[in-house]
Design goal:
The complex is a heterotetramer, with two copies of chain A (291 residues) and two copies of chain B (256 residues).
Chain A lengths: L7 E3 L2 E3 L3 E3 L8 H5 L8 E3 L16 E4 L2 E4 L8 H8 L10 E5 L4 H11 L7 E5 L16 H14 L4 E4 L7 H10 L4 E4 L3 E3 L2 E2 L4 E2 L6 E4 L4 H12 L6 E4 L5 H10 L1 E6 L2 H4 L3 H13 L3
Parallel strand pairs in A: 3-4, 3-16, 4-7, 7-8, 8-9, 9-10, 10-15, 15-16
Antiparallel strand pairs in A: 1-2, 5-6, 6-14, 11-14, 12-13
Helix pairs in contact in A: 2-3, 3-4, 4-5, 6-7, 7-9
Chain B lengths: L4 E14 L2 E7 L1 H4 L7 E4 L11 E8 L3 E7 L3 H6 L7 E8 L10 E7 L6 H7 L1 E9 L13 E5 L6 E2 L2 H4 L2 H6 L2 E5 L2 H10 L2 H4 L2 E4 L15 E3 L5 E3 L6 E3 L5 H7 L2
Parallel strand pairs in B: 7-8, 7-11, 8-9, 9-10, 11-12
Antiparallel strand pairs in B: 1-2, 1-6, 2-5, 3-4, 3-6, 4-5, 12-15, 13-14
The chains are: A alpha/beta (291), B alpha/beta (256).
The structure holds flavin-adenine dinucleotide (2 copies), flavin mononucleotide (2 copies) and FE2/S2 (inorganic) cluster (FES) (2 copies).
The site of one flavin-adenine dinucleotide (FAD) has 23 residues of chain D, from strand 4, strand 5 and helix 2.
């Protein structure tokens, strides 16, 4: 295999690198832009946007484990209309494309959020987060049932004027079938994948420090899990695969590209290194000899 | 106004000031030239990838060419930081957050419990202060603060008077202050808040702590429950808040 | 919560500790016994036994990643009859109980292996490994379909004269439902859980070093994933839960017990520390103050 | 006969003998008193939990109070091991595996390629040898072996003759030996095997390498493909095997 080119055209847009900043780990890009940390970033994926404002889960929302991080943010966000009117105008000058991560509690909510946000010209597309609980239909995550994934994807594709990716969940169900369903529903990409369900208990009290008990777990040690899932999904769908999870160095990005990812997200690493996008790109260039 | 940056700073000195409490001085004209009292920095405790987040520490005071941190060794991150040696290069992001709402024309009363007083020196050095009350469990936990008037109170009476900080809060002290800075464990801060009569509460500012992912406002991990419902981000909307912003009940329930 | 007692009676047998040595990481116990490493071990779980001998997957079968281990052993074993006649007699003097891990390519094979092995009096029970591919019905792992898990469990319970645990898979499907199905089928415990699907690709060649491409991934960093699954499953079934995965220190064992596990397996840690059982027990005693 | 044990051994010395090749001596009467030539040890390269497996290294020779390892720095584990300092306490399990089938009455010819010759000293010190052939890419990769007759060959001709080890294998050398020890990369060992005429092949023993989980026979990870199908465990049935045991074709396909 020859060295993969690091710039690319994706969803009709030029990307300076395959590295995308993962949803929930870089806000809407503004803070990192001001810190000078968007150099080398292919794109920013916003935190999740829902129809109504959500204040999020009770604290503590984060819990570090020896080798990773548990998060229970609870989709805290000011709601689609506020995002449209107040946030998107403020980030229209980002030096890289913006993708909006969309969450909902019903199939309809995803479509509704997209309908509101499409009034803005700032973002290039959407990432549909089907890992959240399907409150309208019993509470299991949308993403575990391919049939529901298809319906979400179809509902979004009916209203979306821009490309969208469906961000799958690794927590139950068959991710390959869910990816195929997303594609059939009209998705322009799939993101593999959201956080793995995790938990930490204080053995002395027998209790989870995080109020919701289970949370989303991320760790650089999860890379092999993500590589396997990217490889399986990219062999099953024809739309591009965006990887999400496990990246902590340039070699990890190259490995995910080799596994079949077209774009590679980095999230938790940004907590240590807000300028990770540029660092990863430099590391990759060194490894591949690209200038 | 974004003045923070991510810098590789040289450790200038490191010493244990109390059992398990370390003072580390970093060289960083970039950070010290823009830092304000009450702001904090995010320190990388180790090279490599673990732990996956940094450690937030308040700037205790400015030094000739940088700033000093004062921290307690409580877990893995601070254990690693206690091993910093002069000459080490450490990645530090800062200054971060909204510090004390400082107005040079005002006179401050500072009330600190335990490690909450780490950070007071910078404030004392920047404003006029009428007094500093420092509470601790015992003599070996009394954070050193250089100020004109320092009142020390320890739970075991091993230094200063015996008791809790609240015992030292008097109408006279409160009346002499235009602003009141409170920092310490949640229970201590709530007790102080409850001890201060309504009439003086609008002067109170409290410095909060929360588990942080980033420290620069992007992850929504560091929420502090506020009066009237909802949350504020400790890292960018705080760590210092007007006392009446805090929903003490929900904050205590939250735990850390 | 008061400190958990560390000795226990499980399946009618006295265990000196809750620590079991996980299947595939301690053979049939003989080597570790000779090394003096069974001190502190509650029980040994044997490597997988199938009806016919299996030579296993082509090498390399192991691949270390920066923070974990991929294995693709392929159930190498000399077959149930050989185990019955040659191995079990040789390990009749182990200082701790032995549980036999059973694998198969069809529902019938699990029952057949148990039928053969029950002629021996050496082992105290079985662990039924439903993570292997159901070759007779399309190749997906038995464990992803609760209906199939029920059938395996039922088939085994019809022939087994000893207690058995069903070892669930975290790779797809709903583990809680699978656990409930195992219990309904007659399982005396469930093991949570087998290895997570993982993969590592050499970005320069674009290939997986392991011939089967995907493999089983283990890492101490997976502990929060196992804690979450143990907690979920133990809240859903009444049979005891045996945890498997992520243990590298005594505190991890205590955390899994607090999450609802009755017994706690340790596997990969044995590659660094063959005497881990005793080390973990010592660490736990120190933490809980038990003598 | 289980003679292995898991010991915390003190590092007695550590030095670089060739660029990137380190010699480390451990104190361990327990291991050295029972070790046989061709056996190996499993070394913990670091404290903590990562990497999750140990590193297998052949015993190069016995020393007064322990044994010496000779290893090449190829990746993370050996990088850590290259930093061992005298006085360090390191966990080492050994001796492990089946070494050379040694009979003191026999005369040995040793053929080593690259780091394959690490381990030869112990054999040379234990048996009568008629010659040692050492091949390497260049002078800076020639493993030092003290023996009566050492033939050196390098690919670039920078030391000894120019070429591959196979060029030095002569009917005369083969005829003088009762046993032939071969160790090196798979391709080198296969070439040697193919060069040796049928008549001498029954004398050949080869020392194999495989990725190991345990090193003590429990994980089935270290399989070497053998003639007639199936596998043997490198760690307990090897690492030394009679040459005709190996299925060279399947072994080469396997890669490492
Ligand atoms: C704005 C701010 C300023 C601070 N200033 C100081 C200071 O000047 N001096 C000082 O001694 N301490 C200060 N702290 C607390 C300090 O951050 C923690 O003691 C430290 O993070 C503990 O890390 P650890 O790895 O040693 O402990 P562990 O308990 O092992 O940490 C586990 C995780 O919890 C987090 N955590 C644990 N305790 C706290 C805490 N009290 N606040 C926030 N996160 C925590 C850690 O960052 C880490 O992510 C401050 C905290 C905040 C939020
Ligand atoms: C029985 C035996 C004896 C050995 N004796 C010696 C010796 O005397 N001197 C010497 O220099 N080397 C010897 N080796 C090879 C040595 O074990 C590897 O070079 C070493 O494990 C590499 O580790 P690493 O972390 O530096 O490399 P990495 O490539 O980062 O290792 C990644 C993983 O692959 C494994 N691995 C990589 N290369 C090998 C290999 N060649 N054989 C087995 N596993 C490998 C590592 O153990 C680790 O698990 C021996 C191997 C075996 C099996
Ligand atoms: C603090 C935090 C918040 C997150 N919020 C969201 C979110 O709002 N929507 C979403 O789809 N994923 C969210 N994620 C998941 C990340 O986008 C990403 O998929 C995950 O962190 C895996 O990548 P990593 O291993 O690089 O962190 C969040 C992750 C973290 C750590
Ligand atoms: C080398 C290796 C071989 C294994 N073989 C088996 C097996 O034969 N049957 C089985 O049910 N699990 C097998 N497992 C899984 C372990 O029993 C255990 O569930 C897993 O390793 C998780 O525990 P750990 O994190 O402590 O390693 C194997 C694991 C490893 C590392
Ligand atoms: S710590 Fe990330 S938003 Fe405050
Ligand atoms: S390395 Fe485990 S059996 Fe050989």
């Amino acid at each position: 295999m020859s060295s993969p080119s690091l710039t690319r055209k994706f969803w009709g847009t030029e990307f300076v690198s395959p590295v995308m900043l993962a949803s929930g780990t870089s806000g809407f890009g503004e803070e990192l832009f001001k810190l000078g940390c968007l150099t080398g970033a292919g794109a920013v994926v916003s935190k999740a946007v829902t129809m109504k404002p959500r204040s999020g889960n009770p604290p503590p929302r984060l819990l570090e484990t020896p080798f990773g991080l548990l998060n229970s943010i609870g989709l805290a966000n000011p709601g689609a209309r506020y995002v449209l009117e107040n946030i998107l105008p403020a980030v229209s000058n980002l030096p890289c494309p913006l993708v909006i991560n969309v969450a909902g509690e019903s199939v309809q909510e995803f479509a509704d959020v997209v309908s509101v946000l499409k009034e803005s010209g700032v973002h290039i597309g959407y990432e549909i987060n089907v890992s959240c609980p399907n409150v309208a239909e019993g509470g299991a995550a949308f993403g575990v049932d391919p049939e529901v994934v298809f319906r979400v994807s179809e509902a979004v594709s009916q209203v979306a004027d821009r490309p969208f990716s469906v961000k799958l969940t690794p927590n139950g169900g068959d991710m390959v079938q869910a990816a195929v369903a997303a594609q059939q529903g009209g998705a322009s990409a799939v993101t593999v994948c959201n956080t793995f369900l995790g938990m930490m208990i204080d053995w002395k009290t027998g209790k989870s420090v995080i109020k919701r008990k289970v949370a989303g777990y991320t760790s650089p040690a999860l890379l092999p899990l993500v590589v396997a899932r990217v490889w399986q999904v990219s062999n099953a769908v024809s739309v591009p695969v965006i990887s999400s999870g496990g990246v902590s160095c340039g070699q990890d990005v190259l490995q995910l590209l080799a596994a079949g990812a077209e774009m590679v997200q980095v999230g938790t690493r940004l907590m240590r290194r807000p300028c990770a996008a540029g660092e990863l790109l430099d590391e990759m260039k060194k490894l591949t000899g690209e200038q | 106004m974004q003045t923070a940056g991510d810098y590789v700073c040289t450790v200038l000195s490191s010493r244990q000031v109390l059992p398990g409490v370390f003072s580390v001085e970093f060289e960083s004209p970039e950070i010290s030239s823009v830092a304000l009292p009450g702001q904090f920095v995010q320190v990388e405790p180790s090279p490599g990838v673990f732990p996956v987040t940094r450690r937030p520490v308040t700037i205790n005071r400015l030094t000739e060419s940088g700033f000093e941190l004062l921290f307690d060794v409580v877990g893995r991150g601070t254990q690693l930081m206690a091993r910093f040696l002069p000459g080490d290069m450490v990645r530090v992001m800062g200054p971060l957050g909204k510090g004390w709402d400082v107005d040079q024309d005002k006179t401050w009363l500072l009330i600190g419990g335990g490690l909450g007083a780490a950070g007071f020196q910078f404030l004392v050095d920047s404003v006029r202060s009428s007094g500093v009350i420092i509470g601790a469990s015992g003599a070996d936990r009394v954070i050193p603060v250089q100020a004109q008037t320092v009142h020390i109170v320890t739970e075991d009476g091993s230094r200063g008077s015996r008791g809790l900080v609240t015992a030292l809060i008097s109408e006279e002290l409160l009346a002499r202050a235009d602003s009141i800075a409170v920092c310490g464990p949640v229970a201590m801060m709530e007790a102080v808040w409850n001890t201060i009569p309504e009439a003086h509460r609008s002067k109170v500012q409290v410095s909060t702590e929360s588990r942080m992912g980033c420290g620069w406002g992007v992850c929504d991990g560091c929420s502090i429950p506020v009066s009237g419902g909802g949350y504020r981000k400790c890292c960018v909307e705080g760590p210092v808040f007007p006392g009446d912003t805090i929903d003490w009940k929900r904050w205590k329930e939250a735990g850390l």
